[in-house]
Backbone:
């Protein structure tokens, strides 16, 4: 199969945060060893490929972003193929295989890939290989690795059939018949973690050849003193197994240290999503009591001197740095503490074997080392297996080297999940656990992803509070565990809490609104476009809002906006408003209850802006109550089934859900399905279909996180 010219296939990727690109590059790297040449392009580079005339097989790797949208880099192509004037045989010549990336924590799992897959099928394209749907919730590699393994056999079959067709010009009809009977899987297989028995390997070829993997030395046997597996120690069978490890990724970055003279680039140069605004934090309020399980803060930003504009419900992004102490520790471990303020020049390494190698866009061509580690690289990212494979090469201790090999191997998949992915182990944790590992700076730049801005929902109305933008968040805390011996706060929430600590005051029954209002601290923000989580354009339409915990945040903006509209347009008709709120304890976590200058929820009730407020407290008990009160918002919703059905079925109302995906939003969705099923007198399947139509009509809207 490796003789003669390598057979070409087109490899397209569409990525939002870099995962799809990294997987596509892995496919490109493996292609040569299997006798193929991958012509790789980002899907947005439409001037470099043409699906209308493409004759070779096409492999697509595509992620999902937002609430089920294709990534930004796929939008041009998606818009083009969704042209309703295209004939049903527009892509009849096209053969493709698609790998979708998503997260089952979200409702529209892998919807970016499904959207492209479905439309290509509608336009006559054919699968030459089954569609793979990888789930980031349980680990992309559970699907990605076997999907790539099986890809090479599927491509072999495509080219074999093409060769047969070329040699049988006199029997076109017979060849067409054989094509239809060929082992093409034309239906979508959801390759999730649930189908663990699925095997896509070509049994006729040894895995060491197929996967370009290396049979490693297994002479290092675990100590008999240790009987339990851990991050740094393995037990049989893996400790005594031959290992198949990934091919070593080629180096492609070169770093040159310069002097300490110069200026770092502005933060705005690190993003391509839009215009950044540096705005002062004018207020900081703690909304929860000191003994609350989670600490919730409200920050108010002054945007009066900017052109930043937003609607209630809009989300925006905050550019945040890595933790200072973690950056300093990383410099120390890398033995670069004295070089932190030195400028470095980052270039592509001459002679690299990486096709299309380029300096990552999020890495400035020239900046200080500390700037790169602070603002550019996600040093908290969970290392991918390719990174672990690279770390093997810079680890001197044989036992540590062997364990890193195990963790990145096919045989060590469960250990990787248990000791790295699930506990969110990061590079620093690994370097502490494997002290003989001394990676180079260029390796970090090659393998650590971009430090992503963090997204927050606006908790205010520009109409109600001109020139102000408020948002609410809980400080994320990660407790220490055996694989991560130190506790941590969230990258952004921890930084924001530390930033506003001098002006922060605990919200009490009475609030001095002048305290903490003279801050000079500034943060950089930019708008997050294409958000549909907005109030109905028709104010007479009723709406129901479900927002436990900090999920109430956008609804404060909704109610502020609605109150101002009521004041300015007394002749308008306004629809009924419902708010379902829940928290653990009424006295500790009832956000906004006592914050008078933010327009109390109770004030919204009193002036008629809010018609119905339904609350529940999951950790409060009432031993004297004959009937236990509802614990969660989904329980309260079920108690008002008739009203929910009336608003959704008879009055064309809108239903909004904001907050935790796994433990709340799914429960609310289930409750609504049950209500619809009961009130429509139909089965759950039909009720689910109706809910899907509400989602498509953007009348059932979610702003959720995992």
Residues:
């Amino acid at each position: 199969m490796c003789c003669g010219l390598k057979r070409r296939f087109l490899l397209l990727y569409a990525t939002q945060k870099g995962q799809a690109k990294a997987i596509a590059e892995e496919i490109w790297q493996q292609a040569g060893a299997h006798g193929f040449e991958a012509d790789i392009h980002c899907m947005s580079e439409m001037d470099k490929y043409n699906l209308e005339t493409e004759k070779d097989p096409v492999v697509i790797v595509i992620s999902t972003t937002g609430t089920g949208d294709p990534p930004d880099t796929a939008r041009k192509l998606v818009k083009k193929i969704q042209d309703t004037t295209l004939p049903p045989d527009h892509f009849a010549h096209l053969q493709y295989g698609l790998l979708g990336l998503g997260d089952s924590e979200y409702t529209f799992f892998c919807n970016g890939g499904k959207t492209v897959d479905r439309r290509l099928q509608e336009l006559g394209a054919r699968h030459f290989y089954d569609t793979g749907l990888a789930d980031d919730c349980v680990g992309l590699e559970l699907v990605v690795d076997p999907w790539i393994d099986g890809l090479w056999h599927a491509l072999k079959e495509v080219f074999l059939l093409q060769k047969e067709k070329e040699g049988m010009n006199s029997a076109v009809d017979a060849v067409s018949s054989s094509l239809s009977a060929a082992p093409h899987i034309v239906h979508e297989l959801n390759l999730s973690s649930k189908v663990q028995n699925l095997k896509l390997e070509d049994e006729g070829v040894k895995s060491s050849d197929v996967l370009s993997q290396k049979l490693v030395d297994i002479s290092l046997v675990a100590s008999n003193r240790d009987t339990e597996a851990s991050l740094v120690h393995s037990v049989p069978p893996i400790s005594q197994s031959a290992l198949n490890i990934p091919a070593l990724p080629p180096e492609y970055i070169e770093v040159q240290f310069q002097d300490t003279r110069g200026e770092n680039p502005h933060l705005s140069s690190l993003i391509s999503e839009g215009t950044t605004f540096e705005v002062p934090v004018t207020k900081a309020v703690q909304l929860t009591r000191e003994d609350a399980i989670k600490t919730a803060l409200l920050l108010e930003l002054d945007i009066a001197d900017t052109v930043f504009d937003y609607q209630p419900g809009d989300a925006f992004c905050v550019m945040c740095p890595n933790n200072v102490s973690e950056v300093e520790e990383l410099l120390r471990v890398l033995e670069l503490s004295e070089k932190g303020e030195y400028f470095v020049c980052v270039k592509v390494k001459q002679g690299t074997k990486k096709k299309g190698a380029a300096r990552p866009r999020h890495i400035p061509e020239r900046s200080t080392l500390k700037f790169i580690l602070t603002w550019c690289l996600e040093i908290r990212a969970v290392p991918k297996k390719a990174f672990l494979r690279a770390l093997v090469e810079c680890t001197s201790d044989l036992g540590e080297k062997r364990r890193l090999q195990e963790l990145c191997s096919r045989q060590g998949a469960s250990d990787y999940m248990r000791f790295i992915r699930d506990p969110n182990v990061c590079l620093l944790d690994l370097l502490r656990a494997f002290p003989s590992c001394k990676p180079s700076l260029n390796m970090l730049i090659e393998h650590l992803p971009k430090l992503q801005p963090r997204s927050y929902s606006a908790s205010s109305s520009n109409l109600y509070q001109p020139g102000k933008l408020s948002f609410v968040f809980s400080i994320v805390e990660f407790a220490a565990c055996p694989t991560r011996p130190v506790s941590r706060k969230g990258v952004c929430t921890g930084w924001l809490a530390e930033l506003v600590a001098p002006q922060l005051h605990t919200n009490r029954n009475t609030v001095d609104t002048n305290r903490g209002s003279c801050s000079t601290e500034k943060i950089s923000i930019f708008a997050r476009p294409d958000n549909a989580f907005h109030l109905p354009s028709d104010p007479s339409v009723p709406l129901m809002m479900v927002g436990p915990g900090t999920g109430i945040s956008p609804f404060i903006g909704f109610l502020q906006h609605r109150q101002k509209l009521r004041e300015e347009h007394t002749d308008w008709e306004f629809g009924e408003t419902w708010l379902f709120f829940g928290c653990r304890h009424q006295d500790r976590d009832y956000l906004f209850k006592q914050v008078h200058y933010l327009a109390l929820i109770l004030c919204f009730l009193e002036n008629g802006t809010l018609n119905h407020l339904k609350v529940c407290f999951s950790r409060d008990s009432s031993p004297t109550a004959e009937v236990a009160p509802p614990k969660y918002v989904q329980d309260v919703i079920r108690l008002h089934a008739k009203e929910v059905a009336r608003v959704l079925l008879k009055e064309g109302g809108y239903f909004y859900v904001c907050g935790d995906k796994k433990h709340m939003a799914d429960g609310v969705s289930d409750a609504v399905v049950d209500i619809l099923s009961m009130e429509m007198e139909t089965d759950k399947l039909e009720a689910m279909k109706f809910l899907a139509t509400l989602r498509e009509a953007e009348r059932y809207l979610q702003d959720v996180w995992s």
